[in-house]
Amino acid sequence: MFLSIKKIYYPKALAFLLSALSLNFASAQQKKYNIDISNAAKEIVNGQLNLGGVDPQGNKIEVNNYFISYNNQAIIPITGEFHFSRYAETYWGESIKKMKAGGISMIATYVFWNMHEEKEGSFKWTGNRNLRKFLQLCKANDIQVIIRIGPFCHGEIRNGGLPDWLLSKPFSIRSNDAGYLGYVDRLYNEIGKQMKGLFFKDGGPVVATQLENEYQHSAAPWGISYPGEPYDFTASARDRAVTHQGVAVSDVKNPYAALGQDHMKMLKSLAIKNGIITPLYTATGWGNAAIVENESLPVTAAYAYPTWTEKADISPFFLYKDMTKVPDYAPISYNPQAYPAFAAELGSGIMSTYSRRPTVAAESMDALINRCLGSAANGLGYYMYHGGSTPKGEFYFSDETYGYPKISYDFQAPIGEYGQIRPAFHRLKLIHFFLKEFGYLLAPMAVTLPPDNNKIKSENLETLRYSVRSDGKSGFLFINNFQDDAKPTDKSGLMVNLNTKTRKISVPVNLKSGENAIYPFNLNINGANLKYATAQLLTKSNGANPYYVFFADGQQPAELVFTKSAGLKIVNLSNCKVSQVGNTIKILPDLKSFAEVSIELAGKKTKILIVSKAKALQSYVISADDQKAICFSEAIILKDKDQLQLLSLGKANFNLSVYPKGSLVFENTSEMKVQKDNFPTDHYTVSVPEVSPVLDKNSTAKDKVQVKLPVLEKGLNDIFLNIDYLGDVGLAYLDNTLVADDFYKGLPWNIGLKQFIGQSKSNELQFYFRPIYKTAPYLVDLLPQALPKFERDSKLVDIKKLIFVPEYTFTIKIK
User: Fold this and answer.
1) For residue 3, what pLDDT is reported?
2) How far is Cα 219 from Cα 153, in angstroms, rounded to an integer?
3) Chain centroid to CA 28: how far?
4) Rounded to 5 degrees, what are φ and ψ at 283?
5) Which parts of the chain sit beneath pLDDT 70?
6) Beta-bridge partners for 597
7) Angle at which helices 423-442 and 362-373 pack, to 10 degrees?
8) How many other C-beta atoms lie within 10 A of the C-beta of residue 502?
9) Nearest to 660 by CA among 615, 580, 752, 596
10) Across-strand partners of 581?
11) pLDDT tens for residues 564-600?
12) Is the dihedral of CA 207, 212, 215, 219 positive or negative?
């Protein structure tokens, strides 16, 4: 009634009380979110796309308008970009294993024309350019490949990968000019020869080919330019009016769109002519870029921290949508409902430029993936997933015009420039493990958005952002509480009411700022119906002793609620409580430890393990002899045939837990001890000899220091040099040759040294640090703690601290 009172004077205390009641009433109204999914359905159309293939063993890849399938089962591929030519050949195998340990199922890699044909007519395929060796390593590690053959690549390299000498030729590049196509034909022929016998049709790892890149959308500048000079873009002369700098929305009408499609068709025919035959062909689909209609997958992109915009903007990439209707960076040149939404360039990091240096939050990466999956994406791809270093060629280097580092191509990626594992790697793998086992359920499911979804803007940080993918009965609730360059409010005490075909399901939601979640509902667990869970699925194992693994954030009280049915029994509990409410059985795990429950229905037993998110971040899925185990460790775990390699950064002592008990049996070693406890896991402690590399440095000026390279002793995989400095740019030289550089962002500069040890006469790295000026344009991008305090000085440089951090390696053989 008080809401209708007007112009009545009352004491301040009463006013405060009425105001509080009003706010509480409004809040109560906002705590419930209702969504009707009872009519959720997606029409699947088969046979309209000329894509797919079969390998010699009969394994089959097919594509419909909504998802890709492998042997008639829907899959959601997970692609990680890794440029073999930007990483030391010696360590390719280790990096491929790291990517696989992170849940990557396909590696995408560029073949940069100017790296392989620096001088016209002279192709190089050795050392770091050895494409064939890289593909053979991918095959040996059972990981598939998307080969990006250009001719234009971009990739933040000089001319976008086009050789300098191409500029002198009497034809228009990136066009159907016969002279240009002749050179492309020759390039594809050389690439095809390197890949012979390694295509999917031959039993090899190469399943997809990307033709060109951002055709009729973007280009790279030729050479260098002065400030303010218009770029001379590497685009066909006719397309320069529609050419963009970087990934962008393109609403300019292109009068030559039909010619662009013709060129893409021509490139595909040249690829096939030269033996580059794959089940899938992809093409950049964003911003009106040209594709091969019905014969290529148009892939999408989302970069939350672009450096090619004038300033930092709150992006739309953390708001749910239906990407099969309105892809990111629309308008587009194709009908999006005719193809799966394959988000193949998701910005898992970003390159720094000399004038723009945003720091990408690890939380942004899995939040972006959550948003894409909740928006109907049925393919994921990261650019970059693994960083690297652009090697100095005779006629190529990184893109100077845009002001990129000369060497570093770290990209703030989940796996860094020197193979270092970052927090984003661990956050992303939780979704990857989930998709490997449950992608077949998710891929065919339709998207249902809240009724007022189109009213939610990126600046709205209070409203719950959520989406549902379902078949109308069962599915997954997606929630995102992250926004770049802003901080959403903590979400607590909320309820999402799902109106399904059969019943209403109310899911409680508590999610702190910066986090995201995927909750299952009406999930069939070996015959039992999981009505809903406020814990996320990590993985599962079938076989004779099936189990499911869940994890939960401490902010959300974890509960697994089963529909009570005849014969459903709880037969074993460990660190769990069980209660019965109406027709449901509620399981409440204690996340301070490993929690396990066994359920039984119709004589079938299923174990369920629930862990904290912190513990899940230490998880790895290991398969050996038809057994699947989940290993938990502070160390990175890489599998190589019948052994595990554990990499521990800075710690000579670490733990290893294996679930279920007895699933992996190791050969005894003196460094590994079994711990007796009541956990549902086998638990070990590992102790290796501690190594303390001595830092031998010589400071010759305020801005210069020389560091002797250490010895890589037995038991070490690498030694990282961490440099805490204040400055503009750090430059590292080996025997007077630039080998590494870093643009200051307020973060320590980490350099993996193993590739340099034993490679020089002087056996030392020489460093020079340029000063930072208070007029630097990138200061607006730096985090508060990274901002320098200039006071009276107009420029600053300070080499604060240098330390060596050893990375230990320990190998266990599986019996």
Assistant:
1) 29
2) 9
3) 37
4) -150, 145
5) 1-30, 396-397
6) 573, 608
7) 10
8) 11
9) 596
10) 584
11) 999 999 999 999 999 998 999 999 999 998 999 999 9
12) positive
